[in-house]
Design brief:
The complex is a heterodimer of chains A (about 475) and B (about 220). With about 475 residues, chain A is mainly alpha-helical. Chain A is built from 19 helices and two strands. Chain A is globular. The model of chain A has no long low-confidence stretch (mean pLDDT about 90). With about 220 residues, chain B is mainly α. In chain B, α1 runs antiparallel to α2 and α2 runs parallel beside α6. Chain B starts with 5 loop residues before the first helix and ends in a 14-residue tail after the last helix. The chains are: A mainly alpha (about 475), B mainly alpha (about 220). The interface between A and B is large, with 50 and 49 residues.
Chain lengths: ~475, ~220
């Protein structure tokens, strides 16, 4: 029941906003829909805590300890982003960058995107997972090109073609899984695509077929995670779209794509009886981390800078999940949570910073503390958090990843440490003059809404100091799922 | 190994035809003829799906064949041709450099695809699975086409050819995905093509051309 509400609110909201999205109250309506989704998700979470795994709608949807916390995270960030987007989009409209039709498109696609992600997270059917991931791509393509500038159209085209091709490979992988499972789970039935059924018989699946399938699934969904060398769409899409979209792309979509990869990995681990899937994740993860940090130095655009930082962090998570084991998986899940909260908070402040300065180029953004102290502090604290400064939660997860790497794969530790140090130097060098320094920039026409930023950073801080027992229990149950 | 049945032989002939069309697309310069080739590919898919449906007596495959007929032979080509007329690119020629090299790379990809599918083909319980290598080859050739072309319109055709290869893999190796999933995929493809259509107009409005050479300003700096 709660599940129907969680999926139903954003879907109905998308339809409603497709009609009323340009009205004066559309932004408030968007917030109300996101809040309803969040409340329904909270109720769902309470039910799962008491009753355990839920299977619904003829086994097509399910909630287990792994996806329930991602559902909670997705609806929470979806809600705070809608709060942030209200003044942000008003300022954009006041600057003349948006027409009524595009505002309607924006609000409607925002909810459709949320719905697609929630379906992808809760579905039990690998086929629906694919359909929902593709739907998430399609809805965000139109959001990335919202400003209709040359650069934004180019970014959206790149995003569309690269992710379209990537996700087509994932479909081939899904077909191969179906080939492998059909013999075990009865031909031409639905059950050969249901994750819970696959998980139950994963030990008997044909290893060669599942191995090949996993390669395609990893490359396919990995394109959407932003794993190097298939990450090219990510910085462009983040830099050229409206900032609320960058925040949900970076904070949520990448997580959902990684979730898809991990679901497939659990099956592949069971079928292959070898460390190969884990090794592949470690390789891609490490490559992405190193690659992204090398590009951090050369960035001139604030949103591109943090987009590369997202690639780096997705790399760290992928590496952590690749190592496997209870501690590394725990660290990976924690890192998913804190990265999502921190990165969206950074994009919120970066969005207002660019509006103040009138440019996304970092040399044009100066002295945020002087004009908008809350934006300046938000950006500074967010940056410190994402760079892994204690006592923020990112420090905890990165520390766990590093210590596990030191124990199990000592060769990887110096590479990871170097990447973290380079990232620290590169990002801090760029952010410091933006926050401090002199400026004559005017004050924004609408007061920015920074409550979301401080809620997110507060949560990350709290997670860094102590993880509540409910959450650590979830993480442990989820890690248990990985151990299979 | 028992001799393949007549139906399986016909299916393999159809698979070969699909591969041949993919090569033809790789070397085709005229956009109009590319759409014709895409229609042919759709027709081969419908025939092969019908054949599999007739030999296995699975009712949902008949629906699937009907869906393919409507979508891939009917609606999608119609949308593409309409777009071409409205954009005035019906007679467009795309200069292709080095067709022989492209063909050689294509050949290499086919060998690679067969090598990759070999372990699965060896396990095959049905004759149908021998076509997996060809399906993978069609997918890789479509990828090559997307990479090699510089026009937005031809990239989209490559994208649809890729989808055809996936569909062929699904019907011949697994007797089709479950119906609901197939419907979902079809819907995604249809919406995707609509969005591509919208994009053509945005691109032309901004760049006065559908040539993707203009879309190369976002580089690492």
């Amino acid at each position: 029941m709660e599940l129907a509400l969680v999926l139903g609110f954003p879907l109905m909201g998308a339809a409603l906003l497709a009609v009323t999205g340009a009205q004066r109250y559309a932004a408030e309506l968007n917030i109300a829909i996101s809040l309803s989704t969040l409340l329904a998700a909270a109720k769902l979470v309470v039910r799962v805590i008491h009753g355990g795994t839920i299977v619904a709608f003829d086994e097509q949807f399910f909630i287990d300890p792994f996806n329930v916390f991602l559902v909670a995270l997705t609806t929470l960030v979806g809600f705070t982003t809608s709060v942030f987007s209200r003044p942000y989009m008003r300022i954009e409209a006041a600057h003349g960058r948006l027409t009524e039709g595009r505002l309607r498109l924006y609000h409607s696609m925002y909810q459709l995107f949320m719905a697609a992600m929630l379906v992808a997270l809760t579905t039990n059917n690998l086929g629906f997972l694919w359909v929902a991931m593709e739907a998430a791509t399609l809805s965000t393509v139109l959001l990335v090109s919202l400003y209709r500038t040359r650069a934004s159209i180019e970014a959206a085209w790149k995003y569309f073609i690269l992710c379209g091709v990537g996700i087509a490979l994932a479909l081939f992988g899904t077909i191969l899984v179906y080939v492998a499972a059909e013999g075990r789970l009865g031909g031409s039935g639905m059950s050969a695509l249901l994750w819970t059924h696959l998980n139950a018989v994963k030990g008997q699946l044909e290893p060669t077929v599942v191995g090949l399938a996993f390669v395609f699934l990893l490359v396919g969904y990995g394109t959407k995670v932003g794993l190097a060398p298939l990450h090219n769409w990510l910085p462009d899409a983040h830099a050229e779209g409206p900032t609320p979209v960058s925040a949900v792309l970076s904070g949520l979509l990448l997580n959902v794509a990684l979730y898809a990869v991990l679901r497939c990995k659990i099956i592949a681990d069971g079928a292959l009886h070898s460390a190969l899937p884990g090794r592949m994740l470690m390789g891609f993860g490490l490559l992405s981390t190193v690659w992204a940090t090398l590009f951090l130095w050369r960035q001139r655009d604030i949103k591109r800078l943090f987009a590369y930082s997202s690639i780096e962090h997705m790399g760290i998570m992928t590496f952590a999940f690749g190592m496997g084991g209870p501690v590394a998986t725990f660290a990976g899940l924690l890192h998913m949570t804190v990265h999502s909260l921190t990165k969206s908070a950074i994009f919120f402040t970066a969005g207002h910073a660019t509006q103040t300065a009138g440019t996304q180029r970092m040399e044009g953004i100066r002295g945020l503390l002087a004009t908008h102290p809350s934006v300046g502090w938000g950006l500074m604290l967010g940056t410190l958090a994402i760079l892994g400064m204690p006592p923020f939660g990112v420090f905890t997860s990165e520390y766990l990843v590093l210590t596990t790497a030191m124990r199990d794969h000592p060769w990887a530790t110096p590479i990871l440490l170097m990447a973290l140090v380079v990232a620290f130097a590169a990002i801090f060098r760029h952010v410091q003059p933006m926050v401090f320094g002199e400026t004559q920039a005017p004050v924004l026409p609408h007061p920015p809404s920074l409550l979301p930023v401080f809620i997110h950073l507060g949560l990350v801080l709290a997670l860094g100091i102590s993880i509540p027992p409910v959450l650590s229990q979830w993480y442990r149950l989820a890690a248990h799922l990985f151990a299979g | 190994m028992p001799a393949p049945t007549f139906a399986a032989q016909v299916l393999q002939t159809l698979a070969a035809a699909l591969l041949l069309i993919s090569f033809a697309m790789l070397a085709e310069r005229r956009s109009r003829r590319l759409v014709t080739l895409l229609i042919w590919q759709g027709a081969v898919l419908v025939t092969s799906t019908l054949l599999v449906a007739a030999t296995t007596h699975l009712p949902h495959l008949f629906f699937s064949a009907a869906l393919t007929l409507v979508l891939k032979v009917g609606v999608l080509p119609w949308i593409l041709l309409r777009l071409m007329r409205r954009l005035g690119i019906e007679r467009d020629n795309e200069p292709l450099v080095n067709v022989p090299t492209l063909m050689l790379v294509g050949l290499g990809l086919v060998i690679f695809a067969f090598g990759l599918a070999q372990p699965i083909t060896a396990l095959a319980t049905t004759v149908m699975r021998h076509t997996l290598g060809i399906a993978l080859a069609v997918i890789l050739l479509a990828l090559l086409m997307i990479l090699a072309r510089r026009k937005a319109f031809t990239q989209v055709i490559g994208f649809l050819a890729l989808e055809n290869g996936l569909f062929f893999a699904a019907t011949t190796t697994t007797y089709g995905m479950p119906m609901v999933v197939e419907l979902g995929i079809a819907l995604d493809v249809l919406v995707g093509v609509f969005i591509f259509g919208v994009f053509f107009f945005h691109i032309r409005e901004q760049f006065d051309s559908l040539d993707l050479h203009h879309l190369e300003s976002l580089k690492e700096d």
